[in-house]
Amino acid sequence: MGDESKKRDLELVSERLSLYFEQKDLIEKVEKANRQFQQDFTELVDQLHERWVDGLKDVYDFPESGWSIRQASEGSRKYEKLYPDYWSQYPLGGSNGVTVFFCSLNKN
Asked: Could you tell me if 88 and 98 are in contact, meaning their C-beta atoms sit under 8 angstroms apart?
């Protein structure tokens, strides 16, 4: 059974390689399109990250709303913060408050 399994594995590899070489141009086009999509998406996320706070400030009066917003630091832009002001009171005397996070999908 071991020899039969190895033979089938080699046949599968051979089929995959044949398919790859037959469709090489199409595969390269799809990979190029995927790279371009990823680059465009990253640029969009960067633009949204840079503008989301200003956009919210244009619509809402945060000092009067009882809510605060905070951008993540430049080095770690994974989380942006939007939270009610009373959450920053740290009622248990610790250094951690409660915040609401959303992920910007940026892997930086």
From this structure: no
Domain that holds residue 10: 2-103
Structural domain total, the chain: 1
Please give the chain's pLDDT, 108 residues, in tens: 578 889 999 999 999 999 999 999 999 999 999 999 999 988 887 777 777 777 777 777 777 788 877 776 666 656 667 777 776 665 566 666 555 444 555 555
Q: From CA 80, how far away is CA 63, in angstroms rounded? A: 18
| Residue 20 placed within a domain | yes
Q: Is residue 33 part of a domain?
A: yes
